[in-house]
Amino acid sequence: MDPLTSRRTFLATVAGAGTSAILAGCATTPFTTRPSFDLAIINGTVIDGTGGPERRLDVGIRNGVITAIGDLRQASATRVIDASGLKVVPGFIDVHSHTDLDLIKNPYAPSKVRQGVTTEVTGQDGESVAPLGGIGLDHTLQEFRGSFGFDCPYRTMDEFFTFLGARGSAQNLISFIGLGTLRAVHVGFDDRPATADEITAMRAAARAAIEQGCFGASTGLEYTPGSFADQAELAALMEAIPARGRLYASHMRNEDNRVLEALTEAIAIARASGSRLQVSHLKAQNKGNWPKVTTALRMMDDAIAGGIDVHADRYPYIAFNTGLTNLFPLWSRDGGTAKFLERLKDPALAARLRADVQRKVDGLGSWDAVMISSVRQEQNKPYQGKTILQIGTERRVDPYEFVVALQLEEQASVGMVGFGMDEPGTEMVLAWKNTVVASDAGPRAPGDGSWPHPRAYGTFPRAIAHYQRTRKITTLPDMIRKMTSLPAGVLGLRDRGVIAEGKAADIVLFNYDTIADRSVFTDPHRFPDGIPFVIVNGIPVVDNDRQTDAKPGKVLRA
After folding, report:
1. Comparing C-alpha atoms, which of 165, 164, 109, 161 is closest to residue 541?
2. Strand pairing of 55-62 and 65-70?
3. How many CB atoms lie within 10 A of CB 514?
4. Cis, bond preceding 524 (omega within 30 deg of 0)
5. I need a surface site. Which of 392, 466, 522, 556 has the fewest CB within 10 A?
6. Which residues in 355-389 are b (16+ Cβ under 10 Å) and which e?
7. What is the CA 39 to chain-centroid distance, rounded?
8. Are 497 and 90 in contact (CB under 8 A)?
9. Measured between alpha carbons, how far is residue 114 from residues 117, 235, 317, 528, 529 in Å?
């Protein structure tokens, strides 16, 4: 039989549990006039996402939903994909993403879709696209118009969801509410405690965002102004959120020398507020802190034993990606970008700033561990992909002085990659029972002028190819679980993450023998190998290794 035949003859020999579902689905429409399925995936090996063993099964899809699983090789379908030699798995859920506004510019999200990501979870690290307001509103609106060429059409999360949903995308999108964003709106950018009235306003705003469809709340406690919130404030905000959305995703206050103290705080906030805890991109940066990973995992196991629901997410790389401002101390960032830039120009602060930054760099090893990943000014684009040490050597300038000059020229909008973690620690985190694979990246496209961390293109295939197939840190069904049903369970997302009848048809087909990430730090815009089909809500968005122009993604509201 030709597996790509557009219509098939329905035979009564369709076997297994799927038969009754097929017949029920055809009860009101004669099967002679309509195929049983819009799409049938046959001859593949299904790994259903639960962690259970793989099985030779076919999958039938109708109206964007999986309606049958079994032996469907003789069933009729408008389109049949022969998955011989391929694994058939649920679509990957990127539980920690920075897609946010990127889908406005590029709704096809090629770097994420091509690696099998069917659902993005954004609003991370304390920053969400809404609500808008406060002293920074005018600047935000100007930046939006400068980036997209039209006025920002939303002010609330509800309005953003409606706006993005109407535009369409190749992926599903979920968002958290950023508690740092709420602080910016209601408190501002100064390092001070929130007043009682401000906390009341932020509690109401957090509750409203969940009611509008956000799945949880996030913090970025190494970034301003979220870093200025104390433990009591954060617990009060989380406690105000309805129980169904009381998921606390935290980029903790520290990820190097004080990572264990930061984890203690995160667990305490979850305990005090009755929240579920998602530790964002769990790691211990800098060589002297690498042994702390073992202690961190033990602390989370102890918290679980004590009744707290704790998970972590992590990308499968030993380098992180953040803003270059993160090399500078918090005191220098108090008050926002304008005040930060003023301090960089203040001769009286130069020695103190240099010393603080150098301590941070020494923890990483040297300036060769800091790579420029993104700039805005065209004249600075040649620095992308180079380390500060390389640039300093080529230009014969002091590395610190170059960094200060670049920050001033770019108005503190510079991205960096820091090579700060180790392979054993990365393997240990990824292998932990409650770790979810996540990219911590937004979508990119070849030719878009960016120089992204390779995780934007390679997170999910790398986790399979390097850490499971080569390093064997866990089984393949378990690695798939970490990308599918586990994040779905963390989110409370009931209709995705598993291949089962009645679930949304978000599905990835990959070749286990050839799947591999190809993006590298020196050449990041490279799509992975071995993922010929990606299906979102029943529609192929990657078809025979080519991305289609379909935009079947949905904005998913809690």
Report:
1. 109
2. antiparallel
3. 14
4. no
5. 522
6. ebbeebbebbeebbbbbbbbbeeeeeeebbbbbbb
7. 29
8. yes
9. 7, 38, 19, 7, 9
| pLDDT averaged per 10 residues in sequence order, the chain, 558 residues | 36 34 36 80 98 97 98 95 98 96 94 98 98 94 95 98 97 98 96 97 98 98 96 98 96 97 98 98 95 98 98 96 90 91 95 93 92 91 93 94 95 91 97 98 93 96 98 98 98 97 98 98 96 98 98 97
Residues in the chain: 558
Q: Which residues contact 408 (CB under 8 A, 6 or more apart)?
A: 341, 344, 345
Q: What is the 3-state secondary structure (H, E, C) of 434-475?
A: CEEECCCCCCCCCCCCCCCCCHHHHHHHHHHHHHHHHCCCCC
**pLDDT at residue number 318:** 96
CA distances 527 to 112, 360, 467, Å, are 9, 33, 18
**Dist. CA 328–CA 332, nearest whole Å:** 7
Q: What is the pLDDT of residue 33?
A: 59
Q: Which residue has the tokens 């307001």?
A: 133
CA atoms within 13 A on the CB side of 161: 25
Instruction: Name the token pair of 216.
Output: 């949880």
- The pTM assigned to this predicted structure is 0.90
SS3 content of the chain, % helix, strand, coil (to 5): 40, 20, 40
Which domains, from first to last, does the chain contain? Answer: 92-319+425-490 (3.20.20.140), 322-419 (no CATH)
Report cis status (omega within 30 of 0) of the bond before 382. Answer: no
The C-alpha atoms of residue 461 and residue 162 are separated, in whole angstroms, by: 32
CA distances (Å), origin 398, targets 55, 390, 394, 403, 404: 59, 11, 11, 9, 10
Under DSSP, the state recorded for 263 is H
Q: How many CB atoms lie within 10 A of CB 128?
A: 24
Distances (CA, A) of 280 to 219, 220, 284, 382, 412: 9, 9, 12, 31, 24
DSSP states of 7-23 as a string? -----TT-BSTHHHHHH
* Residue 247 to residues 276, 292, 481, Cα–Cα distance (Å): 5, 25, 20
Place of tokens 């599918």: 484
Question: How far apart (Å, rounded) are the C-alpha atoms in residues 220 and 208?
Answer: 20
**The tokens of 157 are what?**
């999360």
444 token code pair: 């990119």
d(CA 89, CA 122): 23
Bridge partner residues of 520 (DSSP) = 523
Query: Torsion-angle region of residue 197: left (phi > 0), alpha (psi -120 to 50) or beta?
Result: alpha
For residue 2, the model assigns a pLDDT of 38
Per-residue pLDDT at 322? 87
What are the beta bridge partners of residue 508? Answer: 89, 534
Structure token digits, residue 23: 């017949």
pLDDT of residue 449: 87
